[in-house]
Amino acid sequence: MTTTAGEQDVVDVLTTDHREAIQLVQQMRTADPERRRDMADQLIAELMRHSVAEEMYVYPAMREHLPDGDTAVQHDVEEHQELEESMKGLESLDSADPRFLEVLGQLEAVLRDHVQDEENDQFPQLRARVPHEQLVDMAAKVKTAKQVAPTRPHPGAPHSELFHKMVGPGVGMVDRLRDKLTGRSDNT
Ligand SMILES: [Fe+2]
Ligand SMILES: [Fe+2]
Description:
The longest helix has about 35 residues, at about 35-65. By secondary structure, this protein is an all-alpha fold. It has 7 helices and no strands. One fe (ii) ion (FE2) binds next to helix 2, helix 3 and helix 4. One fe (ii) ion binds near residues 18, 50 and 54.
């Protein structure tokens, strides 16, 4: 199934995110520790934005339109949480510590499995069952959600809750302030 230029659907957007995240993980392995730290922070931010946006706009559509939607979403959300545990590990470990690459390996294994489930199973089903215009509309929503999503892992908090807190002085606000202070951009 193809889309015309300039009219990306949500599957295009999310699949690009997946490619970029996996590529970044691979580049991190050979990077020097200082660069690896920066790349880890970028990876964490991108995966957080991606997961929160999916949970807000894509997983509800999966629940609605896929025959096994509820089960698939439950599995996917659990994997997002597992990814977040690994991100927490990467955040706390020194990037020169050998354990850093171990945790990165754990993250990559979950990420690859999760990406495969979505791209081979759930995304094709979405394209088969949801009208194209609606998937294009979801692409815009996902892009907007990614701009305001929290960029730090919070394994204990459900992503939908995090998202709602962003409109007030909650977790997302703290992230944005901290990002400003550390010079980390929210909008890349
Ligand atoms: Fe995804
Ligand atoms: Fe996902």
